Amino acid sequence: MSLITKRLATIRQQLPAQVRLIAVTKQVSVEAMREAYDAGVRDFGESKVQEAQAKVAQLGELPDLNWHYIGHLQANKAKKALELFQWIHTCDSLKLAQRLNRLAIELSLQPQVCLQVKVVPDPNKFGWAIPELLPDLAELNQCDALKIQGLMTILPSGLSEPESLAVFERTRELAQKIREQSWSNLQMQELSMGMSEDYPLAVQAGATMVRLGRIIFGERTKGEGRVP
């Protein structure tokens, strides 16, 4: 049994069956991704369109993969992202949502989308603050080529466990508040939250999708940054 397989087995013991594990594969080799696939992973998360394009091509013989875009999406990469990914977790503004909607109509696609939020102030993260998101809901609801399924959040750095849990819980409560308004196109059934260092807290708070890289594939080499 490979190390990746062992790590995945350990993680799955901690995840409820209904929580989707997204293996974050930024700067992870296709060979390592195949190991994860053989261990049952079907959801892969990438944060660079160009890197994902090469991997989608190399893994093209695997028909049951779901590709998730989890990086900051620049407007000029939106069309290619829609062509490559079934899920976009990082729709972080009304302007981007409207652009994705226009492109999805042109491409005859209906991508699954999460709205990226930051329920506590964080200048280092993209996304809506709560007072910014609520006034945009009516226009977001008009983006009917997008299947807006829920919210995504990334914790600010340096939080304690109780503080981290509170952020995840506030994200869940925000989704519930939006759901109670009964928008036709804002389903709010999914919560994409939790990474390698904090996913147990996210699951405790109600995450339906966790984005795990380092805990599956190990640390990147020096100079490559960190996998979630």
Mean pLDDT: 95
Q: Using only CA atoms, what is the Rg?
A: 17 Å
Taken from the alpha-carbon principal axes, the silhouette is globular
Number of domains: 1
Q: Please describe the biggest sheet, giving its number of strands, its sense, and whether it closes into a barrel.
A: 8 strands, parallel
At the first level of CATH, the class is: Alpha Beta
CATH superfamily caption: Alanine racemase
Notes on the protein architecture:
By secondary structure, the protein is an alpha/beta fold. The protein has a single domain, classed as Alanine racemase (TIM Barrel), CATH 3.20.20. About 40% of the residues lie in helices and about 20% in strands. It contains 9 helices and 8 strands. An 8-stranded parallel beta sheet has the order 7-6-5-4-3-2-1-8. α5 (about 95-105) links the parallel β4 (about 85-90) and β5. The longest helix is centred in the C-terminal third of the chain and has 20 residues, at about 160-180. The two termini are about 25 Å apart.
Care to give the gist of this entry?
42% of the residues lie in helices and 18% in strands. It has an 8-stranded parallel β-sheet. The chain has 228 residues and is of the alpha/beta class.
